[in-house]
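Continued from yesterday's entry.
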Amino acid sequence: MTETRFTGSITAMATPFNDDGTLAVGDLQKFVEQQISGGIQGLLPMGTTGESPTLNHEEHGEVVEIVVETAKGRLPVIAGSGSNSTREAISLTKHADAAGADGTLHVTGYYNKPTQEGIFQHFSAIAQETDKPIILYSIPGRCIVDISIATVERLLSKHPNIRHIKESGGEVSRVDELKSALGDDITVLSGDDGLTLSFIASGADGVISVASNILPTEVTKLVTTALSGDLKRASEVHRKLYPLFRDLFIEPSPVPVKICLKKLGIFSTDRVRLPLCNASPENRQSILESLSTVIPSTNAKQID
């Protein structure tokens, strides 16, 4: 297996729906093209932002297939195929492999609350079923449990295709801990747009971004500038984008980003699937006002 590293700006893609709640295939295909033309460096369908918990297996597979087919190898496609059922995660991973995805993203066992030994065995079982890169996904706010540094070390020592981790715990110190323990053996990716600059300054290699759904060029500029070592210029980009980084999470994701995608005409609707629901009028106003500060031409202060 040739070692592949995913770095830079990677979009955690939202999934477009029609008014009746079905998958909007045309919007998804156009969305992939918009992302590529905006200079994004990787696509990640079927993560949290893609509403993966509310898509059935057939829909999940269709989204991955469409993104891979539309991208045509122009950039890496990393499929979200995690689950709190190891068997389900393996099945989704095998499908992603067959569809041509370049790697997969795997969350820890949400709701189950496994021990560190259970987490180790879960990721080990998945890694044995694919030779493509696996990104570990640490997000204790949603999963309750975290992936300990010791468990990450065990996984890297056993599986050559585990060399990445997406960190969404909100602690910059995790980058220092991971890099101190594993150095260049681990590729750390920020899972929080607002912390991307701080993460890269501490040794991270990029971001899996929500904001890049609507700002692929700007987020890529932030990441590439920071990775080049020009932190002063990167901080200027960060401050310009920060109001949107903040307000993309005042409602459960991807509710805010879908509001922006519809406003920009990228998605035909901002529909989400229950148990997610429409934003409150007050939060919708805040989201659109923040969008207008970053993209003034949207006239976002006027609610649709």
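--- second protein ---
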Amino acid sequence: MIKTRSIAAGHLAAVFSILIWGTTFVSTKVLLEDFSAYEILFFRFILCYIALFLTHPHFIKTKNLKEEILFLAAGFSGVTMYFLLQTVALTYTLSSNVGIIVSVAPFFTAVLAHFFLKGEPLRPQVFFGFIVAMAGITLIIFNGSFILKLNPKGDILAVLACLFWAVYSILMRKVSELDYNNTDCTRRVFFYGTLFLIPALMFSDFHLGLVRFSKPANVLNLLFLGLGASALCFVIWNWSISVLGAAKTSIYIYLIPVINILVSYLILHEKLTGTALIGTLLTLAGLSLSEINVRKKPNVEKVNI
């Protein structure tokens, strides 16, 4: 009975994280009206770090330089570059576009895991699913640049964000083998992520602009991104993986595009065209085809989101 309850809690935790992550693109889009991409990330990371420190005020004492480099590289790829590219992409394209494109990150992760980790071999189903998903992404990009006359730069930046997330996932797979506290590991990664963001802030028009914080919407969205989407969800998601396993937990990742599309339509009133809907279906179909192979292998490499 206790095991059943733990499994049920694991599923609920995964769903909760996905519901939060599926709306972060919309929340960021709202903040971009008063904040730059760099400012949003800086305040978000600071809030996340403070929250994690207050939750578990302990510091990791790494055993050697190699371990520290793992945290450093994970912070640069998965926090600084991933979030920076994702946020900047939102200044050029629709939040629904970004939400769908970044959901393809597991494909890139699977490819890198094949070469850099002792994981499962890439089977035909994975490649076929990848091709179908790429066809969907192409339709989404075509929809943005042709029908809506938008600069496809945002869609390209979103794809690059996927690549950096794949690198981050490989690094975090190594970090998980160090057997440190999950909350402490997450905080260390965000520390380096914030540190690497500082040089970008120096070349941007970053300023505190306290007047902007007088708007309740800005404060609530920043708290949502920093405390909810970053601090809480990263810890909860990792706990869910420890209960359900990476294969079962990762299935929920594919709900992100659906959630994002609905939220973007309801809140931002972004237009849903036939091309975008077909691209969405193809992307989800490709991800599902790839997941067939993942379910057959319980020891598939972990994808951290």
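The chain has one domain: 2-296. Residues 88 and 226 are 17 Å apart (CA to CA). Will compare against the first tomorrow.
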